[in-house]
């Protein structure tokens, strides 16, 4: 959707801390309220939080917790045990319940249905990383959500329900025993997680749910889970309002989604949605609310769930949805099609190709994609979907698995040809999520280096970053696999780094004249350095020089003074394997178009 306007306001979370939000609306006058640094249009319906946040030196609002407050453009956030701490007044709570009570139904007529017993409550204890102080974690907090049983003694829930999990427990309906669960796989992009429970007692006398077909418009849907407002199971009913490619807030991705008008509230996350036959058609995961729109909930369809499960079964782990790796432009204008020698009313124009994708070896800027696996692509970037519907072109890409091959029909300089491309998950130069949970870091004489990531940008507040570095984060593509933007996060004051104490949130470009590829490369360069001085070159031509022998002498005392267990994260202790750079010149710091669909303010461009 094209964003028509942007503004911001400051939302008080407590008497001593504030968080900025971006306030935007699209061309249809539907309002979105989102964290300033989170590039997503929707907020997960989320699980219920019982959270106490405490960080030495400053108070933080953890990035998993979305603010929930009344007013224009509000998106439902987490349920909290102490509403005040997250900006929810008693009046707001009553308003939220009033908004959904007309769709809340008593489950008396279905209370004996077997599928209700397969829906369980999830209790999760989270310990999120501290991206500003990457050697430690934030204070743990607790949340609740929903999940349901499937074949093979497994459970399905949302990935955001068990993000940064320390302990996960589940409880069956009508039972007072909580069973310990293990997270087998977590799909951030599709917001799905797979759990297992070893206890035989947990699985006794329960029939697992069956995944049903993709529903049609106006089909009845029943959402079951454990949302706010009580401890027992909740059932709400509605109909399917829309089926289209949807923005997934947690994964910052675009996949098929089902829009429904059944009430979805905090705590419903991970709960199943059923059709009239008792088949599971999807997983409740996010909602959208504003003064201009009501009862807009979203369900992950069974086709996406099946894709996740098949991926896990094939590889023994989750590898992710693949991408084509091209920025495409719609060809609605007849003169534009004529200029490109496209005779028919179809096709999309390739405007940019990601260097790390296989498309970089096959496609060129100016190519027109007219078919994908023999399915014709319309000039609006859509393809046929079921009988009388059309859907976004990258829906076809999401049906593939990592490593699959797709056949493209393209027009290049007026000539039609077919070519094959291997599809793989997208490589992000600035990742939205950190694999493994804990960020990498390297401390040299009190200079703290870490890779740039969206969680770090959000935690530090966007105002604390230079415009040039933010432009790189928003407009730069990775030129080769494992490329990172390494930044100096802060300087831990010591005699050895006098004069550099005020440095922070600056990209380091070179070490002793060698361009830095990633933080592991920087650690390797420092470890193998035999020169008298360590010379770090930063953006804007700033240079920091340290005496190598003085650095070695001061390192242990700095770690002791600041209570830091190690000078580097454990992953940097492994041997460094050099990564070949791409063919693109490194002199160009950032490109002309954003790297994310959420940053593109024009509906005619879209990343596939």
TrEMBL record:
Keywords: Hydrolase, Protease, Serine protease. The keyword Hydrolase applies. InterPro entries: DEGP_PDZ (IPR041517), DEGP_PDZ_sf (IPR046449), PDZ_sf (IPR036034), Peptidase_S1_PA (IPR009003), Peptidase_S1_PA_chymotrypsin (IPR043504), Peptidase_S1C (IPR001940). It comes from the Eukaryota. It holds the Pfam family Trypsin_2. SUPFAM superfamilies: PDZ domain-like, Trypsin-like serine proteases. The keyword Aminoacyl-tRNA synthetase does not apply. Residues 430-571 form the Protease Do-like PDZ domain. Residues 569-596 are annotated as: Disordered. Belongs to the peptidase S1C family. This is Protease Do-like 2, chloroplastic. It comes from Stylosanthes scabra. The lineage of its organism: Eukaryota, Viridiplantae, Streptophyta, Embryophyta, Tracheophyta. The gene is DEGP2_2.
